[in-house]
Amino acid sequence: MSEKNSHLLSNRIKSVPKSFIREILKVSNHSDIISFAGGLPNASLFPVSDIAQASAKVLEQNGAKALQYSNTEGDLSLRNLIAQRYKEKQGIDVSPESILITNGSQQAFDLIAKALLNEGDDIIIENPGYLGAIQSFSLYQPNMLTVEVNDNGMDVAQLENVLQSSKPKFVYAVPNFQNPTGISYSQENREAVAATIDKYDTLLIQDDPYGELRFSGEEKESFYSLIPDRTIMLGTFSKVVVPSFRIGWIVAPEWLMDSLIIAKQASDLHTNYFSQLVMSQYLTDNSVDEHLETIIGLYSKQRDAMLSAIEEYFPEGVTTATSDGGMFLWVTLPEGMSSMELFDDALESKVAFVPGHPFYVGEPKENTMRLSYVTVDSETIREGIKRLGKCIKNKMQ
Ligand code: PMP
To answer: Which PANTHER family did the record assign (predicted)?
Structure first.
């Protein structure tokens, strides 16, 4: 379609911000650049041969059935396995019927927004917050309100203020190893956030792709245990097994489930059935906990390498948010320094990161940046942080 016809685009699509990260990844993906910019898991850990075996077994045992259309809710054996894992790992009782399999958690955002939001409705998101969720919600043209996150979680006083002066349909939160900051809500913070939300007519969406990637420290309580009637849980196998299957899920109450199923049916009928059966077979034949140990072993080693390189090479006045797991570190540069400008210098030194800018709704904190440590080996991390440290020091002069 030529430019002159672009007025035919919907208001809905015009209201969505362009993916800034996509642009950054385009320039930072060259092989001679040390990139801390990506958000992808480390592919060298994908359980390729176990998945090959699971796929062969599904085709041998289920043949034609595995290649047929299926139901919208998702494969029952897979939903059973997810429910069992909630019970074993978090002591949470959810029934398989309350689980809807989605095309990654990314689709969960879309379906929830489709089912809950009218144009102009208030919603609350974390600031900084997960870009993919912000983009997905934007399509439904809500009024996005924000609450700051710090090292301990959400700013509860601010949350209370925002809740008092708005009528949000939901609060969206990533309480474990948040993207972009890597921080987790403390137990006290969770209790305070839950108690605050519970006073208002709203819901909490707990998105949790990284919760099982804990390197150290105690597991914290799920919002589902604190305010079950108000919490919708999202989960995904993307960071724990593989992302290409696009298998995520929503744990939703009965009153919402029918609407989510209708929304999903209208979108794509169902999530790839073959992937669901292979995932289910993989989970039955293999220990996810053992696989997680391998992931955690590598990621935590690389996280430590990044932290010690930061300690050695970054100048005073640069701070790093505390993180016990996940994939990211969040760095705050000295006041007044722009990470966008630093990005250009860093690229010249062949190192890349994501400036904090795109994760903010409204006024960004210009001096922040996200560093991923999962796809770069420890030695290369040291070299990259050394180069970045040099760029920061140059900017300070
Ligand atoms: N939520 C957060 C916080 C994420 O970081 C990601 C992936 N980067 C997703 C959801 C999307 O995950 P999925 O692959 O399940 O769509």
So the answer is: AMINOTRANSFERASE (PTHR42790), KYNURENINE_ALPHA-AMINOADIPATE AMINOTRANSFERASE, MITOCHONDRIAL (PTHR42790:SF19)
Distance between Cα 28 and ligand 1 center (Å): 21
Distance from residue 179's CA to the centre of ligand 1 (Å): 9
272 with 174, same domain? yes
- Give the distance (Å) from ligand 1 centre to CA of residue 177: 12
Range of 249's domain? Answer: 69-285
pLDDT of residue 2: 61
The full length of the chain comes to: 397
Residue 126, phi then psi, degrees to nearest 5: -75, 150
Alpha helices in 223-376 (DSSP H): 223-226, 254-268, 273-285, 288-313, 339-348
Domain membership of residue 55 (yes or no) is no
pLDDT of residue 3: 75
- Give the distance (Å) from ligand 1 centre to CA of residue 67: 27
In a domain, 51, yes or no: no
Which of 130, 232, 237, 372 to probe ligand 1 with, by most ligand atoms within 8 A of CB? 130
Q: Are residues 151 and 276 in the same domain?
A: yes
Substitution candidate for ligand 1 out of 40, 102, 105, 354 with most atoms within 8 A of CB: 105
* Structure tokens given for 73: 């809710």
Nearest of 264, 268, 272 to residue 114 by alpha carbon? 264
pLDDT averaged per 10 residues in sequence order, the chain, 397 residues:
81 80 75 92 98 98 94 98 97 97 98 98 98 94 97 97 98 98 98 98 98 96 97 98 98 97 98 98 98 98 98 97 97 96 95 94 94 97 98 92
Clarify whether residues 169 and 224 are in a common domain.
Answer: yes
Determine the Cα–Cα distance for residues 90 and 110; give it in Å rounded to an integer.
Answer: 26
Rounded Cα gap, residues 368 and 278, in angstroms: 40
Cα torsion 366, 370, 376, 377: sign: positive
> Are 161 and 18 members of one domain?
no
Pocket of ligand 1 (CB under 6 A): 39, 104-106, 130, 132, 174, 179, 207, 209, 236, 238, 243, 248
Would residue 33 be called left, alpha or beta, if left means φ above 0 and alpha means ψ between -120 and 50 degrees?
Answer: beta
Q: Are 368 and 330 in contact (CB under 8 A)?
A: yes
3-state secondary structure of 369: strand
Residue 173 and residue 278 in one domain: yes
